[in-house]
Structures are given as C-alpha cells and as structure tokens.
Amino acid sequence: MKRECPDGVDVYFDNVGGDVSAAVHRRLALRARIAICGQVAEYNQVPPQGGPRSVSFVISRRVRMEGFLVGDFAHLYGPALERLTRWLAEGRLRYREDVVDGLENAPRAFIGLLRGENRGKLLVKVADP
C-alpha cells in the first residue's frame, strides 16, 4: 500500500471489510472519503464482530464515511449504462469475470466468493435446458 499510494488513499469504495479495509484505513489521506457498500469478509464471522473495530482514523484524518446503496441511484441507471457501454467499446473500461460451469458448482463457488477466492465478477454458467 505504501509503495502504490505514497501520498495516501483519497477515496475508498469498501465492499470487502476485514483485513483489506484495515490495510487501507492505515493509508488514508487527510480528508479521505469512504463509501461503504458491503463487508463480505465479515458476513460469516463466528461469533460476529459487532460494531466497528477501530475508527480513530476517522478522527485523526478527518475522514468522511457514508453507506452506499446502488438503489439510491436507480434514476441514473440509463445514462450510466450508455456511458459505461461507450467506455467498454472504447477500451477505457476493463473488467474481470470468474466463470464457474454448472449450477451444481454454485455452492462451492459461493463459498469461494465469501473466502475471497475469485478475482472478478463471479458468474455461474448454466446450460440451456
């Protein structure tokens, strides 16, 4: 993190939580912003952690954190789809997919997702009936 973000992290879209987020929190820049969309690393903790671990970085770095739900932006779906489609065609947008073949492999793929084993959007390919 220090090598890749020598001046700190200004914006963090958190969909992971856990150790990944803790590493980013240690590198946040002054007045950084965090949008929290998910905490997949914490969904299956036994026992549940309960409450934020340490939020002292919010005070010392004057960080702004806010929950993010995609449904709050549903009215922007059409314009966003047009722009993202254009960026994809222009090669300005790249993505990764991890494709698992067969519905019978979905449970194992889902468990792998919760363990962080995938490196992109996880999809299960189901054969046509």
Q: What is the fold named in CATH at topology level of the largest domain?
A: Rossmann fold
Helix percent band: 25-40%
How do the helices and strands follow one another from N- to C-terminus? EHEHEHEHE
The strand count comes to 5
What is the multimeric organization of the chains shown? Answer: single chain
Major sheet summary line: 3 strands, parallel
Shape: globular
The secondary-structure class comes to alpha/beta
Helix count equals 4
Task: Compute the CA-based radius of gyration.
Answer: 18 Å
Termini distance? 47 Å
Count of spatially separate domains: 2
How much strand content do the residues show?
A: 15-25%
| Widest beta sheet: strand line-up | 1-2-3
Describe the structure.
This protein has 129 residues and is α/β, with parallel strands linked by helices. The protein has 2 domains: 1-70, Rossmann fold (3-Layer(aba) Sandwich); 96-129, no CATH class. It is 28% helix and 22% strand. It contains 4 helices and 5 strands; from the N terminus they run E-H-E-H-E-H-E-H-E. The protein has helices at residues 18-25, 56-60, 77-90, 106-114, and strands at 9-14, 28-36, 64-67, 97-101, 121-125. It has a 3-stranded parallel sheet. It has a two-stranded parallel ribbon with strand order 4-5. The longest helix is centred in the middle third of the chain and has 14 residues, at 77-90. The radius of gyration is 18 Å and the shape is globular. The model has no long low-confidence stretch (mean pLDDT 89).
